[in-house]
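Hey team,

Filing this mostly as a record. A colleague (T.K.) asked me to run one chain through the structure pipeline before their review meeting, and I want the input and output archived in the tracker in case anyone asks later how it was produced. No errors, nothing strange. Just documentation.

Input sequence:
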Amino acid sequence: MEVLGYFFAIVIGLVMGIIGGGGSILSVPVFVYIFDIDVVTATALSLFVVGITSSVGSVGYIKQGFVQFKMAFLFGLPSVLGILFSRRVVLPHLPEYIINRWGISLTKDMFILILFAVLMLISSIKMIKKYDRARIRKSEEINYTLLVSQGLLVGIITGFIGAGGGFLIVPALVMLLGLSMKQAVATSLFIISVNSLIGFFSSLDKIDVNWQFLLSFSALSVIGILVGVQIAKKIEGRKLRPIFGWFILVMGVWMIIKELFLTQF
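Output structure:
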């Protein structure tokens, strides 16, 4: 099983390089279901892997000029505040059982994974659905209020579920701010790299880290993203959005089925 887990480390990088996110959509389930790591620790380890991998991947996009730094910083700074709030205030105070009555048992770990999956489904629907780009952004001016509010929301959710936020950031940059898919993917990777690493290091005093395992897993993921970035150069931007959407839709449905039904047997 561990061999399969390390294989997915490479796949995580490939996904992030091609679609600008989705790494933690795989890394959290891999850590939990294959390496049998508790969910809170898995979300923190995921942030490190995604942070390191996206940092490497964003270098290529920076050289190509696709990263929109102004939007990245305006979006990223409030995200950092949201991440710190979630990981330092919310997560440590969650009870072990969210629901434990009426024959229903919902643990903190199950709650986090189910919330993670639900958000994946919502994002996938937005990404798969066709839209008219002319109606998305009527002005070339940046909506600063929208940038800050979206950044704060993504940060809170990212910190809570341990996701890098790509499956939330990319739709926001494309559908709300009117970036091209290539620009959104590139800017998303840059934002994810900063957000994820801050989220991880803010959690170090709450978890035990096997650094040899974590660095080995991250190295494989970095190899994957270097290959993924090269593949992305040859794929049209309009084709990336629905691929991204269908991918996270399948993963979200599987996780909900796994947590609500299969864990009972």
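Quick notes for T.K.: Confidence is low (pLDDT under 50) at residues 132-136. DSSP finds eleven helices and two strands in the chain.
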